[in-house]
From TrEMBL, chains A, B:
Coiled coil: none annotated. Keywords: Hydrolase. InterPro entries: AraR_wHTH_dom (IPR045830), NUDIX_hydrolase-like_dom_sf (IPR015797), NUDIX_hydrolase_dom (IPR000086), WH-like_DNA-bd_sf (IPR036388), WH_DNA-bd_sf (IPR036390). SUPFAM superfamilies: Nudix, Winged helix' DNA-binding domain. This is NUDIX hydrolase. It comes from the Bacteria. GO terms for molecular function: DNA binding; hydrolase activity. It holds the Pfam family NUDIX. Transmembrane segments: none annotated. CDD domains: NUDIX_NadM_like (cd18873).
DNA sequence: ACAAAAGTGTTTTTTATACACCCATGC
DNA sequence: GCATGGGTGTATAAAAAACACTTTTGT
């Protein structure tokens, strides 16, 4: 990587100087409020120029010796306290002139952003608000105009979330240890839209796959028949890992 | 992006200095030799330390004012002459200590690599060899030990290629303007493995989708009945863009 | 005539979709 | 007993997979 070596075309040896970069990490953090059937994304209010007062994704610049992923976890931990989450890299935005600061306060330094996509457990996530900065969960359908090109990134992240949900077991990283099939269904319906599948068909498909273990336990929520609590059996799932389109 | 601002946790205001980066771009360039049923990847021989003499992906460092994608196209153009291709970003590798140079010749500068994935038309691709550097197409099943973590990146790129092929029309960026259904089938079979589908079923599925326009033209290749030449009709494909799993 | 490659059609199996209906509990 | 949510089953439609067969060319 960073294949500096391939500078063979002698024509451009010294003529085009290399760019110096600062690397930022921005997190698109989703959570699902199943109680209210809302898909949420975490926004913070910018306290500096540029875009002072605009909402944006929580971000940070990468420090010496820090990996990209570590930076992503750091900024996440600064904003919310949460134990159960899924996180992966989303995309790298690195064109020049993305960031207004480039031409002003930084002499020839470019700001590159590696965005990360995270899904956290809503119920347990505690937002950490310091005195000055605003921080809030926004329904993705109602996010305002964001700083930089963050609206675009959100769209990209949202698409990734939907895809991930369909063919990988990310939902179980974020659902409670024990859950009912209805919990699972609500989760999917919130992210994918109500009409993604019939509940009864969803049930039988998921159960037939064989990685949902019946714990024997039941929960009663108000009226109605008690629901069976299931557990995600990662061992039983392992052989299906590389198969296409497992869920939905 | 590059959300420098969110540095609220006062505890670490000045204590942890930011890292300076050089940003590299590495290209995983695939092509399909349908004649010999081989999936190929382009490798170049490194002319410098570290990993002098190892094969690696063609890469370059990003220059002032140059976008990441522009850098990817630049290094591609330095290695092969080709008009028809597909290119997209793959992944960003940016941990510290990925590159041995970090501790030696560069004072606190980190090398980050944004990898790109490309698919080019094999028949028309001319490799550009300068006097010193080695450059070659390798069958992906036979790539040797590569420099850095490039073997890992290759695996990642290969998976991406297979996925792309299944749900997006990248094949047509790389096939000739006019092609037979058998050409298309061979292309898919080479990338996805011979047993991905029955030829006859592949035919009917693709034709039913309605974006392959019969040109009326025929080609005879040796013995056998002449084959119809088709053309990819991008207008007819447009409405299917966002549908899942169109191909195979 | 026959081999080779292109192209069509048919049968079987599997999976998706849409519902109808039974079950267990709280009130 | 009846409303409420949980859970099962069935009937139909569509898609995938396997494979037999016809058509058109070169030799």
């Amino acid at each position: 990587m960073a294949g500096r070596s391939q500078r063979k075309s002698t024509r451009s040896a010294n003529t085009d100087p290399l760019e110096n970069f600062k690397v930022g990490v921005d997190n698109v953090i989703f959570s699902v409020d199943t109680a209210q059937n809302r898909l949420l994304v975490l926004l913070v209010m910018r306290q500096e120029e540029p875009f002072l007062g605009s909402w944006s994704f929580p971000g940070t610049l990468v420090r010496q010796g820090e990996s990209l992923e570590a930076a992503a976890y750091r900024i996440l931990a600064e904003k919310i306290r949460v134990r159960n989450l899924y996180l992966e890299q989303l995309y790298t935005f690195g064109g020049p002139n993305r960031d207004p600061r480039e031409n002003v306060d930084s002499y020839g330094v470019r700001y590159l952003s590696v965005s990360y996509f995270a899904l956290v457990r809503y119920a347990e996530a505690e937002l950490i608000a310091d005195r000055v900065s605003g921080i809030a969960w926004y329904p993705v359908s109602q996010v305002p105009q964001l700083a930089f090109d963050h609206n675009q990134i959100l769209e990209y992240g949202h698409r990734r979330l939907r895809n991930k949900l369909e063919y990988s077991p990310v939902a179980f990283d974020v659902l409670p240890e024990l859950f009912t099939l209805n919990d699972l269904y609500q989760f999917y319906a919130t992210v994918l839209g109500d009409n993604f599948s019939d509940y009864s068909n969803f049930r039988s498909r998921l159960l037939k796959l064989g990685f949902l273990a019946d714990t024997g336990l039941k929960v009663t929520r108000g009226a109605g028949r008690p629901a069976t609590l299931y557990r995600f059996d990662s061992e039983a799932f392992a052989p299906l890992k590389d198969k296409p389109l497992v869920f939905i």
